[in-house]
Amino acid sequence: MRVAIVHNAVDDGGAPDERDVLAQADAIRAALEALGHDPAFLPCTLDLCDFKHRLARLRPDRVFNIVESLNGTGRLIHAVPSLLDALAVPYTGAGAEAMFLSSHKILAKHCLAAAGLPTPAWVGPYPGGGPAPPPGATARDESTEGPWIVKSVWEHASIGLEEDRLALCQSAESAADQLPQRAAHLGGACFAERYIEGREFNLSLIASPAGPQVLAPAEILFEGFAENRLRIVGYRAKWDAGSFEFNHTPRRFDFPPEAAGLLAELRTLALQCWCLFGLNGYARVDFRVDAGGRPWILEVNANPCLSPDAGFAAALEASGIPFAHAVERILADARRRTP
Q1: Please, what CATH class does the domain formed by 197-332 belong to?
Q2: Which end of the chain is more exposed for a tag (fewer CB within 10 A), N or C?
Q3: pLDDT digits (tens, 9 = 90+) for 306-334
């Protein structure tokens, strides 16, 4: 099978989070070749007309879509799936609507709240005027206690989340006041979310013939963090290999028997997120668990990083699934979507 690995074009001087898509593409290429497929890289820019012509010349049977942004902005993450839908080309991962809905963090939170799923309270976004929330979308978390963290509406990879540059507010009112000042540094649109003190979990999911499978749950540990430091997985923790944060936030997959109830609840919530957003192929759901043992959904990531050193690959290994087998399952779940 001829498979086009479609990824966002990256400049030589791109930031680590931007260049990571190339590592993903290389790992997918190697897996596809091992499976007997014929892969080809197809980088994408804002010139979608040129992309369309190059795609037509390649004539792939499937597209393996790992586009994370275009022209450096995550708000265009759904553009390539939308084009592939219009061309009736089958591709991996979430469809255009699911990609848009889950990547727009405010819309995602509205949908979670409307479905009765727990997500931290928020204010914003700034600027306003976005799509209306679904009817009945009210956060289960009504607390106004601080702190509140200002985050990007669209950008992922923990962009803007560094403790020394974090807009940290002690009330919903002060958080709302910060949004206009922070928007330009966070991709042009931002919101504030109540910070949940506690533990952090990532649950990865992958398609299977029997439906989505939840992989081994992972907990991020914050080793050696001072008592007064926020325990968050910020930009340095993900991308700066020489930083304290990178080297002191390992993940673990082994849990004592008394954690079984919590892990079961997290698995159920992850599956509910998959169904709610209509996801395909693979995904990851990020949680915080507060001191009372209550889980809160932070994000639903419809195209998590597939680099060999990232959390999804680690969850595959902990679940006994070789990376090439996972790529095969994701490819098998690719479907033709028509407008």
Answers
A1: alpha beta
A2: C
A3: 999 999 999 999 999 999 999 999 999 99
